Amino acid sequence: MLLIAAMMLATSAIWFETSLASARAATNVRDYLQAFHAADSALTLCERNVLAMGVDANIPPPLAAGEPVQWKLAAAFEAGAVTPVAQWPEAQAPQCLVEAWRLGSRANATAYLLSARGFGHTSESQVWLQLELVVEDGAIERHWRRVAARPF
């Protein structure tokens, strides 16, 4: 009888730990999806704004040839980022930074690197997305990518 009670107690403990791990995993997935959709929405809205305004005086000209790197610096990102959506449900509003880009091989092209950061339930759960936008002779090229690791 004592052996059966011990086995039932051990089984109950294992089921309890499994349900806790399952709840944590579900929460993490929800946070990731919320952050991803926030970043994706910010990226879409920033792209629309850039295409609507064209070459705008509010976007600083590129400092050097090559891919912009200001999005990797916390101070530069915070100073230049815009919040295209005023509020986001249960999270901090997503942010987007637009950087001009000079393509060495294509002199007639206007290029931008759009970097968006979306948040989950906490500010620690973040998703970063980027869009390379190239406009040349009326044609628009889009190159989308997910940033694997948070830059800061």
Key descriptive features of the protein:
single chain; 152 residues; alpha+beta; 4-stranded antiparallel β-sheet; 24% strand
Helix proportion of residues, in percent?
A: 25-40%
Largest sheet: 4 strands, antiparallel
Strand order of the largest sheet: 1-2-3-4
Strand content: 15-25%
Overall average pLDDT? 89
Q: Provide the gyration radius in Å.
A: 22 Å
Number of helices: 2
The separation of the N and C termini measures 58 Å
Stretches where pLDDT falls below 50 for ≥5 residues? none
**How many domain units?**
1
Structural class: alpha+beta
Number of E-type strands: 4
Overall geometry = elongated
Secondary structure topology:
Layout: H1 2-53, H2 74-80, E1 95-101, E2 110-119, E3 126-136, E4 139-147
Antiparallel strand pairs: 1-2, 2-3, 3-4
What's the quick description here?
By secondary structure, this protein is an alpha+beta fold.
What features would you describe in this structure?
The protein has 152 residues and is of the alpha+beta class. The chain has one domain (2-147). The protein contains two helices and four strands, in the order ααββββ. It has helices at 2-53, 74-80, and strands at 95-101, 110-119, 126-136, 139-147. It has a four-stranded antiparallel β-sheet. A hairpin with a 6-residue loop joins β2 (110-119) and β3 (126-136). The radius of gyration is 22 Å and the shape is elongated. The mean pLDDT is 89.
